[in-house]
Amino acid sequence: MLRVVQNGFPKAREAEDFYAACEMGLRETLRGIRVYLDSYEDEKLVN
Predict the structure, then answer these.
(1) CB neighbours of 9 closer than 8 A, spacing ≥ 6?
(2) What is the pTM of this model?
(3) Which residues contact 33 (CB under 8 A, 6 or more apart)?
(4) Is the separation of the CB atoms in 30 and 8 below 8 Å?
(5) Which long-range contacts (CB under 8 A, 24 or more apart) does 10-14 make?
(6) pLDDT category, 6, cuts 50, 70, 90?
(7) What is the rounded CA–CA span in Å between residue 24 and residue 22?
(8) What is the Cα 22 distance to its own chain's centre?
């Protein structure tokens, strides 16, 4: 399980652009984590 917490968003009109940029960055980061974990798919994962 992975939990991601974001805080500190601006309270003005630019908040929408800021949030959109954070969302795009998070998607790319999670995609990278998935690619990394998929490369170890055949190995036993230990908690």
Answers:
(1) 15, 18, 19
(2) 0.60
(3) 2
(4) no
(5) none
(6) confident
(7) 5
(8) 9
Residue with tokens 């309270």: 11
Rounded to whole angstroms, how far apart are CA atoms 28 and 30? Answer: 6
Name the 3-class secondary structure at 43. coil
Read off the tokens for 19: 């949030």
Instruction: Tell me how far apart the alpha carbons of residues 22 and 4 are, in angstroms, rounded to a whole number.
Output: 12
Residue 31: HSE in the Cβ half-sphere, 13 Å Cα cutoff: 6
Share of the chain above pLDDT 70, in %: 91
Query: Nearest to residue 26, comparing CAs of 7, 6, 8?
Result: 6
Phi-psi map region of 32: left, alpha, beta (phi>0 left; psi -120 to 50 alpha): alpha
